Amino acid sequence: MNLKSVTGMIGCLAFSCMVQAQQEWSPVNGKIQSEWVEKVNPSSVLPEYPRPHLVRSEWVNLNGLWNYTIQPLVNTTQPAQFDGSILVPFAVESALSGVQKTVGKDSVLWYQRNFTIPAKAKSKKVLLHFGAVDWQCDVFVNDQLVGTHKGGFDPFSFDISSALRKKGAQKLVVKVWDPSDEGPQPRGKQVVKPHGIWYTPVTGIWQTVWLEAVPSTYIASTRQTPDIDQKTVTVATQVENTQPGDKVLVVVKKGTEIVAQKDVEPGQPAVLSIENSQLWSPENPFLYDLKISIVRNKKTIDEVGSYFAMRKISMKKDANGIQRMLLNNEFVFQYGPLDQGWWPDGLYTAPTDEALKFDIVKTREMGFNMIRKHVKVEPARWYYYCDQLGMLVWQDMPSGDMGNRWEMRPGIYGKATDKNRTPESEAIFRTEWKEIMTDFYNFPSIVVWVPFNEAWGQFKTAEIVKWTMKEDPSRLVNTASGGNFEPVGDIIDLHNYPEPLMPDPALFGADRILVLGEFGGLGLPVENHTWQEKNNWGYQSFKNKEDLYNRYAEFISVMPHLIEKGLSAAVYTQTTDVEVETNGLMTYDRKIIKFSPDALKKLHQQLYNKSLVKFK
Questions:
Q1: Domain of 64?
Q2: Structure pTM?
Q3: CATH of the domain at 155
Q4: Of 179, 188, 311, 562, which cross-links 280 as Cys (Cβ 3.0–4.6 Å)?
Q5: How far is CA 105 from the centre of its chain?
Q6: What pairing do the DSSP bridges indicate for beta strands 144-150 and 64-72?
Q7: Residue 5: per-residue pLDDT
Q8: Domain-terminating residue out of 185, 214, 243
Q9: What CATH number does residue 608 fall under?
Q10: Between the CA of residue 420 and those of 215, 323, 413, 416, 424, what are the distances in Å?
């Protein structure tokens, strides 16, 4: 899917933005910064089209300088005055926001900006989209509440048509409250007082804000499910406000060639045959293009672009009776880094689209074929690049509401405890996890869902895992990465630092896939490229790149033996340094790569030797 034609269309015909008063902006200095900071332009911030699976040509990007103020939580009315400018979509605590202030549970963050709608768009519905806002937000258009959303990691939108004035400036106000680790909501690695493996809070808008105009009958979502065994793809399309006689036309293309097409009644799935399927894999990340249209009396009412891949993730016993993880019905050892997705300048938000792609590109160059996205969800374009580049993804649910006891060693069930969450906390988790699974379903790179990590807020384990498997039977579910372990789900996942180990095949191999969900953590602080000068740490620290590489090579040398015994995947900690952690393959600012990518790629090839695993 080529998004270049819909990239950077801030001046598109459907909308025009009110020019804000020229205000000076600069990132807050004091910490290290990535090289992409110099490419951040406040008048064109992250201008790329944000939604790869539902592409329309007419849209407008609302990123840029907004007004902001931080007020006490007890103040419920819209502010009459603001403290200054904030660069959206960078969190208020980040350097790139131009603010770098903490909000906290006793305060709220207010945003305000204006935009205008041209006359030609007034006959259409106007949708306001947010990529992500952490955590609870109320959205007002012209002082009218158009919607409320809770959830820091899932995209959402509101139909704002009824709130728009007939002409002139439209006022947009967003109110955000985020208790960070002082509330029960999913928040990943954020804490009020950062230390160790816990990082700076992220409050407010941290992904692209944008508008689009759609007809009264429009495509709201699609769901693509490939079946490589039957050589089909099923496309389910949700259409709003259909009329009798409307048809949904689905066209599959391979370049300029039409592979298959079918029209169905709205609400009915289209099942299309994909003969001579090109299967998606890390070696061949082939993507088919999709065009989906609403047709009424032979006239196209609405049309979107999308894509899909023919790929399958499954499990099967090898010749020794041990469950193996299969890609496209073949064993592929999955190996990649634990990826936190943090930035020294933007925190949750990469400075530019080039920066967002950079970590994936470097990971690929180093010979990894998988990334475990750790207790964070990325913007949709990140997964789009994984799809393009052939990178398998294990997607964690962001953790929250900590407090239960952790048992990290598998073997004896019952030592660990599930969190006794409140009904409110449980409902928050279920709502956001369901939204994440739904919103990111179409990305073929995602092959594993991980609902829990190391007992961080883990609750009703068997129930949640079974529900996750039911919500998406097309992927595998890693029950509890690193514990707490229960006899449910597809995978049993051991964490061990620093050396690589694996779950006991005799205890677990017949029932579940065996993986090493975290290991390594080899640290190397690089002067002038650390978050702070002193008290940085790794699980095992080194003073030079040579010693670091030699220790890492020792770890890799034992992996083929573990693969033969039953190991299907492993995750090395981690992609980059993050704040005081210095155990990354790269420094936090991405300016120093601690390992030679070529040397790592050569070293890793032994892990992908298919002769290590035999099937009957």
A1: 4-214
A2: 0.95
A3: 2.60.120.260
A4: 311
A5: 25
A6: unpaired
A7: 43
A8: 214
A9: 3.20.20.80
A10: 46, 32, 18, 13, 11
